[in-house]
Fold this sequence. Notes:
The protein has helices at about 15-30, 45-55, 70-80, 100-110, 130-145, 160-170, 180-185, 210-220, 225-255, 265-295; strands spanning about 1-10, 35-40, 60-65, 85-90, 115-125, 155-160, 190-195, 305. It is an alpha/beta fold. Strands 7-5-6-4-1-2-3-8 form an eight-stranded mixed β-sheet, sandwiched between helices. Helix 9 (about 225-255) packs antiparallel against helix 10. The mean pLDDT is about 90. Bound molecules: uridine-5'-diphosphate and magnesium ion. Magnesium ion binds near residues 92, 94, 96, 199 and 204.
Amino acid sequence: MVLSVITPCYNEELVVEETYRRLKEVMAKTGMNYELVFINDGSRDNTYPLLLQLSESDKTVKILNFSRNFGHQCAVTAGINHCTGDLAVIIDADLQDPPEVILDMLEIYRREQANVVYGVRKSREGESWFKLTTAKWFYRILNKLSDVQFPVDTGDFRLIDRKIIDEFNRLHEKNKYIRGLISWMGYKQVPCYYERKERFAGETKYPLRKMLKFASTGLLSFSKKPLKLAIWLGVLSVLVGLIYALVILILKIIHPESFVLGWTSTIFMIIFFGGIQLLTIGVLGEYIGNLFDEAKDRPEYIISEKVNF
Ligand code: UDP
Ligand code: MG
């Protein structure tokens, strides 16, 4: 059995060597054949030269070098597409997911005869309050809106077997929400609980902008419910409109003399319904934008160099 370790790296010069060292230690303990697949996602720092150095003395180190930064999900996709293992582990470069947990995952994999062993964060050290709260709510809202159920507090850190890898390689969608897609595949998936650590060095490569994009990809690719927003808001406004019309009618009959009701409620209506219309057009726009991306059918990533493949 060959184990592939898939590690996306974006500006990780401060951590790659330590990650390499820790992964090597763990791989030695598994006693398996293995390959360490590093994807350099267009880093602008020394990440690539450092990886190249490692790959010269160690042929188990394989590199996919992207032509520019394509994003975390594309980097993981490239790793899954190119790995040769019977099993693969997806793990971040920053050591937040401790490599030692791979041993637990392997053990659970063997004991449970599972196809996927996904990491569930028991605790998360060194993350901002904002990130913790938004992540917590995002996963719960996604579950409410989607037809598929996803495990909560779970990232991409997981072990997958060849069946899952092959199925994954058959997927054509470009905007991938990988953790969701793997849950969606079914087969036997079991959790592995672990403590998520603080980043070893450097800072997060997921600023708010990328987090929002990621959340939107997850939501749009697994739920059509936001599209129904327009219908429900429409129903609501018709009801409110009817009730209001009735109130005006009655007032007009009882107090015909004092009847210049007006400016405030008119402005309120214009703002309110203008807002609802823009909001629902925006939701439509998001879905259409996604369709547009898929229709163009551009590759998800471009690899400029492959090393040791
Ligand atoms: N990453 C990447 N491309 C990007 C952003 C991030 O390959 O555009 C990698 C990054 O190097 C790390 C992993 O994805 O190995 C997770 O990123 P990070 O640790 O910054 O995210 P966080 O843990 O803060 O959510
Ligand atoms: Mg991280």
